[in-house]
Design goal:
- There is one protein chain.
- This protein is of the alpha/beta class.
- The chain has one domain (about 5-345): Aldolase class I (TIM Barrel, Alpha-Beta Barrel), CATH 3.20.20.
- Helices cover about 45% and strands about 15% of the residues.
- Strands 1, 2, 3, 4, 5, 6, 9, 10 and 11 form a nine-stranded parallel β-sheet that branches. A two-stranded antiparallel sheet has the order 7-8.
- A hairpin with a 2-residue loop joins strand 7 (about 170) and strand 8.
- The termini are close together.
- Pathway: Carbohydrate degradation; glycolysis; D-glyceraldehyde 3-phosphate and glycerone phosphate from D-glucose: step 4/4.
Length: about 350
């Protein structure tokens, strides 16, 4: 297992698009959840993506610091040391959902740090960053994306953007579950007009098709994965008619965009498969792996309550309240959920050689 170089990461994404599979992008908040994700990728023989959110980056730096840049840098350095000890698969690091209010204190400083790394002949700390301008008018969203794409190109990283609104709640940002959750084919053409199709820098785009963060009962979330196909087809026709620039060699004519699936936890397998068939190469997974990790720990505590607590003057059982015991159970359960995601997305057994 090695940390992806910029070239290797591009190869991963292109292979997923042409091979009609996607990588699970697992949000982590600690070294334990990082290790769980890596164990899952290794067991599944799948390349993958590890990501930290704005809240996760702050959490990683500790309560007293609450510094997203410090947390991100410290995490990435630790992750590289661990990742590089395992042969066989490649893992990329990504920062997730940077809303406008966090841009100047998180992703822009990281890009500046990485541009300096590249200038010194090093690879960047992270392999991609997400700009979440979904709360802004599309024109403003894309204007900022254009600036960030230039910085990303200089930092040898890939930019991820969001067009449309993902419903639900994540890290304090919430959006209603309504018609704003659906992007349009016209949105795709506007993205190409502003960002091109790779010739100005590589990017991924999360068009929304009813996506919702979090966990909901059946019937609440109404995904329309065929909308992704309509966006790809409309853009491909525009390329063929000379309306927009050609995406260049190696890009499938029917899938000009590298797509991202947000709010994927709890989605129906058929909806996931259809979305992947239209060019989704990255699917974010957070809620399901959070639950898997915590559920195992809760089970341990309920089963051993008289050992993890000093009840009626007893002393408990140190081997049961030792964080390594219940933490290991959480890692195992989360790793199993990562394996399930790799199999469902088709990346299992397809690690690049």
């Amino acid at each position: 297992m090695t940390l992806a170089t910029p070239e290797r990461y591009a190869q991963m994404l292109d292979a997923a698009r042409s091979g009609s599979y996607a990588y699970p992008a697992i949000n982590v908040t600690s070294t334990q959840t990082l290790n769980a994700a890596l164990e899952g990728f290794a067991e599944a023989e799948s390349d993958g993506i590890i990501q930290v959110s704005v809240g996760g980056a702050s959490y990683l730096s500790g309560r007293n610091l609450a510094d997203r840049v410090v947390g991100s840098i410290a995490f990435a350095r630790f992750a590289k040391e661990v990742i590089d000890q395992y042969p066989g698969i490649t893992v990329a690091l990504h920062t997730d959902h940077c809303a406008p209010q966090y841009l100047d204190e998180w992703v822009r400083p990281l890009l500046a740090y990485e541009k300096d790394q590249v200038a010194r002949g090093q690879d960047p700390l992270f392999q991609s960053h997400m700009w979440d301008g979904s709360s802004l008018p599309l024109g403003q969203n894309l204007n900022i994306a254009k600036e960030l794409l230039e910085d990303s190109r200089a930092a040898h990283t890939i930019l991820e953007i969001e067009v449309g609104t993902v419903g639900g709640e994540e890290d304090g940002h919430s959006a209603a579950i309504d018609e704003r959750l659906y992007s349009s084919p016209d949105d795709g053409l506007r993205v190409v007009d502003e960002l091109g199709l790779g010739e100005r820098g590589r990017y991924m785009v999360a068009f929304t098709f009813g996506n919702v963060h979090g966990a909901y009962k059946p019937g609440v979330v109404k995904l329309r994965p065929d909308l992704l196909g309509e966006i790809q087809n409309r853009t491909a026709r525009a390329v063929g008619a000379g309306r927009v620039p050609s995406p260049g060699p190696g890009v499938p004519g029917d899938k000009p965009f590298l797509l991202v699936f947000h709010g994927g936890s709890g989605s129906e397998p058929a909806d996931i498969a259809r979305a992947v068939s239209y060019g989704v190469v990255k699917m974010n997974i957070d809620t399901d792996t959070q639950y898997a990790f915590t559920r195992a720990i809760a089970g341990h505590m309920f089963a051993n309550y008289d050992k993890v607590l000093k009840i009626d003057g007893e002393v408990g059982a140190k081997n049961e309240y030792d964080p390594r015991s219940w933490g290991r159970e959480g890692e195992d359960r989360m790793a199993a959920r990562v394996v399930e995601a790799c199999r469902r997305l088709g990346s299992a057994g397809r690690a690049l050689k």
